[in-house]
């Protein structure tokens, strides 16, 4: 039995960037031999094992043949006869299809090293088109490596366009689309993910609302996403800035199709609805600011209000405005109900007095600007 380091670890090592997970491929072994050597099997039918000490993944070399649409219908064939080259051939991109033996020799049958140097994301073979998830993965790697100068190779872009035209992207299920999108939102240049999906036509299929938004507003949503990326590492802030131009109906359609998690959904809704009614040039009144703060749930959850401000800033309402909102919220939160109670207010009158005091604080902030 022979073991090789494969995939992302080899790629990242050659790029000189930190390696996160180390995955191994094992050639010439049976599942029983792996169990006898002390490895633990992961899942019943899948030829993947965990090393007893390092817990790293060791997969038996395998080939995959496609029968159905989408990424369903793969027949996996793992046997001691499957060669390393055959295993590497089923992989998506050449830079992900290299292996390294224990003595340090790099096995690179598809020109991965050359593509690393040329900064190209290129498909390994035409079998790429058997799995539409690879379109999303390629866009995600483009988002990760764009700052290093990587681009999708022309022939790979052409292949992805063909896949979309032939309806392959229609078979992607919503959960996987969100899973890859969420990972892409964590990458260094998430806007590139959406650019690549737009360029190959997949965006209109998997996230039609965002596709339509790009149609209406051109690059603007991507500018918002880039500004949010500079300000925050968090998926919800980045997502909310990207979709800030959607109306509430479109936002709900997108959320329910992709099963967007609550934190992202709520932040997008709160900042979206503020933006819809934002008095762009007018000087806002204290009452308007109070309404905006209330809507952001600002009294009770300051961190949430701060996230809303990050989104608003990314979308470009202006630093003056966000500073004023933050200051007004802070001053209003200093109103002390106990002091008002000591003055004799109680019940409904107490509530009204608190409200009046808060408005007075907000008013002072607005007037002082
Ligand atoms: P990351 O740094 O994000 O973990 P990775 O390259 O290790 O990157 P994984 O998703 O862990 O990515 O996959 C490990 C390897 O398996 C990839 O490098 C690639 O060779 C292969 N791979 C994973 N998913 C697919 C797929 N859908 N089609 C083809 N090959 C794939």
TrEMBL record:
Recorded GO MF terms: ATP binding; CCA tRNA nucleotidyltransferase activity; CCACCA tRNA nucleotidyltransferase activity; magnesium ion binding; tRNA binding
Chain sites annotated for binding ATP: 8, 11, 91, 137, 140
Residues binding Mg(2+): 21, 23
Cofactor: Mg(2+)
Reaction(s) this enzyme catalyzes, per UniProt: a tRNA precursor + 2 CTP + ATP = a tRNA with a 3' CCA end + 3 diphosphate; a tRNA with a 3' CCA end + 2 CTP + ATP = a tRNA with a 3' CCACCA end + 3 diphosphate
Alphabetical UniProt keywords: ATP-binding, Magnesium, Metal-binding, Nucleotide-binding, Nucleotidyltransferase, RNA repair, RNA-binding, Transferase, tRNA processing
Superkingdom of origin organism: Bacteria
Enzyme Commission no: 2.7.7.72
SUPFAM superfamilies to which the protein is assigned, alphabetical: Nucleotidyltransferase, Poly A polymerase C-terminal region-like
Residue ranges of domain tRNA nucleotidyltransferase/poly(A) polymerase RNA and SrmB- binding in the record: 149-210
Positions contributing to CTP binding: 8, 11, 91, 137, 140
Membership in a protein family: Belongs to the tRNA nucleotidyltransferase/poly(A) polymerase family. Bacterial CCA-adding enzyme type 2 subfamily.
Purpose: Catalyzes the addition and repair of the essential 3'-terminal CCA sequence in tRNAs without using a nucleic acid template. Adds these three nucleotides in the order of C, C, and A to the tRNA nucleotide-73, using CTP and ATP as substrates and producing inorganic pyrophosphate. tRNA 3'-terminal CCA addition is required both for tRNA processing and repair. Also involved in tRNA surveillance by mediating tandem CCA addition to generate a CCACCA at the 3' terminus of unstable tRNAs. While stable tRNAs receive only 3'-terminal CCA, unstable tRNAs are marked with CCACCA and rapidly degraded.
HAMAP family found in the cross-reference section: CCA_bact_type2 (MF_01262)
General remark: A single active site specifically recognizes both ATP and CTP and is responsible for their addition.
Identification of the protein by name: CCA-adding enzyme
Organism: Halospina denitrificans
Highest classification ranks of the organism: Bacteria, Pseudomonadati, Pseudomonadota, Gammaproteobacteria, Halospina
Gene designation per UniProt: cca
